[in-house]
Amino acid sequence: xxxxxxxxxxxxxxxxxxxxxxxxxxxxxxxxxxxxxxxxxxxxxxxxxxxxxxxxxxxxxxxxxxxxxxxxx
Amino acid sequence: xxxxxxxxxxxxxxxxxxxxxxxxxxxxxxxxxxxxxxxxxxxxxxxxxxxxxxxxxxxxxxxxxxxxxxxxxxxxxxxxxxxxxxxxxxxxxxxxxxxxxxxxxxxxxxxxxxxxxxxxxxxxxxxxxxxxxxxxxxxxxxxxxxxxxxxxxxxxxxxxxxxxxxxxxxxxxxxxxxxxxxxxxxxxxxxxxxxxxxxxxxxxxxxxxxxxxxxxxxxxxxxxxxxxxxxxxxxxxxxxxxxxxxxxxxxxxxxxxxxxxxxxxxxxxxxxxxxxxxxxxxxxxxxxxxxxxxxxxxxxxxxxxxxxxxxxxxxxxxxxxxxxxxxxxxxxxxxxxxxxxxxxxxxxxxxxxxxxxxxxxxxxxxxxxxxxxxxxxxxxxxxxxxxxxxxxxxxxxxxxxxxxxxxxxxxxxxxxxxxxxxxxxxxxxxxxxxxxxxxxxxxxxxxxxxxxxxxxxxxxxxxxxxxxxxxxxxxxxxxxxxxxxxxxxxxxxxxxxxxxxxxxxxxxxxxxxxxxxxxxxxx
Lengths: 73, 523
Ligand code: SF4
Ligand code: SF4
Ligand code: SF4
Hints:
The structure holds two protein chains of two kinds. By secondary structure, chain A is mainly beta.
């Protein structure tokens, strides 16, 4: 049920933070991270995950395989 | 990286009452301060060109907008806006980026509070600092809260500083009212196309209304938002400058169309900048081998658009957190650690006195230039030559040849001495020329010039320059640039007249590749 940020790729541009409808994103140690328990993959809010849509670096906001997909939950 | 938070309370404000402030601001305005007799003097002073008097009044002390002012006044940028809402193929935000202009190297991201403190510290140290800009490293309006908070804090503590911002235009229509509220009177919009088909080659995607758009659709939305924003700013009488990046083979011819479109919507200045592109920047254009324009190509395009509106040729594509006169960067003196230790008291009165002195000096320079020109009228009207000037600022020839990190280029004719651009020479080694010596670098950069004016130069480089067909002139050390160059030009024409030599055109020169960084400045 969550996206995660590949911190080695994150530029800390902060673009994703205000776009998240669930306030799941915050800054930590110079990069940004997603709180998995808050992330809904934007389901119920937008057609596409906002962090993915706004992030300037490809493949930086990605599905975290550790958690089941939100719909399945 | 962790940022320090500093309350605005810790910034000292001097005890000047608001009335004093208003009084001083009122006095500072008016053509009279430049010593001229209204329109006639201002109109021919080179900086104003064909700008309307009210616009000239707004921009004459603005180093980014007025050619004359950029010798004398300083600007700074603060990097409070890291996020962006579009992607440009000339920008690599994986490392860093500056809105609109160049592959950026911004070392510190600032909170609005720290940024305000930094502005005060700089303005107190550099009295000619008159302009504060927010230009990135992302897009100022993709970070509206941070951008406008910064403006709010600064307008409270330093009301004499002009505010400006740069944007790609996508979010512009949403923020025009706020821009007006904070009295931001200069906005720069980067517009590289008016045809979405062209735009699709420059912008891979945009993020708009919670959705990522790509291709022609993305470019079409961006284009429509840019034009709407431009019209809204014009309607509010906010000055708009348009920046365009010249990308050979993609939008070079098209920029003439852009020029017409932005002019018809009220932009007062159009700044065409060369694409800066090298593989090591990691940008799409850098990696796919897209080249930037040569100096001659850039100048030809700028000339083509010049009949249409004011062109700006002195843009240095400076860093998003640059501090200082255009072409110099003192940002290393004002890191967060250093400004936190500084005791800042804002001396509005002292700043004004200093700026008045600068104004007097500038008028002297302008008068000297016109005296030279008057003597030459009529003779050799068709001959034009370019010359390179080594200068540290103040409009004088005051830099040693060997120390020069850039040269200012002037086009001389019997009608004028016109500033047409600048050439950086500090970073060529990173542009792929290996350990080639720096003299060859300089020659390559100013190869289209007939002469180079310096405060001092050694015998060896002088001889080598001569071999390359460039005369090194050191007779005018510390004198005014335009007056000296025109004197030399008169002499040059005299020699042609007497048959001593024949006037020949010079070849093309190369625009430097690579951004201006503190490292290169310190080198
Ligand atoms: S997918 Fe949506 S909800 Fe999850 S972190 Fe990204 S923006 Fe927030
Ligand atoms: S948008 Fe991407 S690069 Fe920017 S802070 Fe978020 S995850 Fe990092
Ligand atoms: S608008 Fe500026 S910050 Fe955004 S991608 Fe383009 S150049 Fe980079």
